[in-house]
Amino acid sequence: MAEIKALEAQARKCAERLQNTRKAVLLSGAGMSTNAGLPDFRGPKGIYRQKLHTDPERIFDIDYFYQDPRFFYDFHREFLRSVEKIKPTFAHRFFAALEKEGILEGVITQNIDSLHQRAGSKKVYEIHGGIWKSFCVDCGKTWGYEESLKMAFDYEVPRCDSCGGVVKPDIVFFGEMVKHLEECKALAFSAELLFVVGSSLVVTPAALLPSMTKGDIIVVNKGEISLTYLPQERVLLHVEEDIDDFFSAVNKHLRLEIPEDA
Q1: Alpha helices, DSSP H only, in 101-159?
Q2: 253 a catalytic residue
Q3: What residues does 122 pair with on adjacent strands?
Q4: Residue 60: other Cβ atoms inside 10 A
Q5: How far apart, in Å, are the Cα atoms of 76 and each of 15, 113, 157, 168, 260?
Q6: R_g of the chain, CA atoms, integer Å
Q7: What does the DSSP 8-state code read for residue 159?
Q8: Which of 46, 197, 201, 243 could cross-link to 41 by cystine, CB 3.0-4.6 Å?
Q9: Out of 92, 116, 128, 180, which one is annotated catalytic?
Q10: Predicted model pTM
């Protein structure tokens, strides 16, 4: 009973803060995808080790990709199969609804699964890239999600129909620069309210973004979180509850129209 009351109090405080802001920003991490049912690819029972018997560092090594893209695509097809089986969570759909209402300025995500876009979010900055599109490494031609998905399963290594170059998902590999960093910094800096959801704030440069905001910060994450770059004086709430349970409780106050499915 005490836990329920604590959750309700935090949800009410979050809703009240949202009702008084027109510039919220979300920084999301792996916790949101785990709630969707996406397997832990890095863990001992994940696809990396069970299916391919290797470490993620090798799969996402950009030099190795150019040397032998077949190795990456063996993993990528397993990843795509998993993503196709899952759906965006309530939290994904909640933040898409906030954007539609004009409250959420944008989403910065560390995830590569593109569940935010599938939930309906339009302004999404995938700092580590994602599967929402693919491109030819030689001529730069791009393909959307559905086309990229088909090519990945039709060919051992998809190749460009214009120049024959290798097609690569728009994922940031080890050895490549992160994406949209300046836009993400600007979003964090201008936010009146920054949500950190499902992220342990360990991986930089995404972990640095909360230190750049001048607004309040609401952290929603079960498990340990790094405080190295998190300005404690700006943390309005630190919620250690299930992500979907918490935002469902928040929406009981806001009463946003959340689609049942996405």
Answers
A1: 115-119, 145-154
A2: no
A3: none
A4: 20
A5: 39, 11, 11, 10, 29
A6: 19
A7: B
A8: 46
A9: 128
A10: 0.89
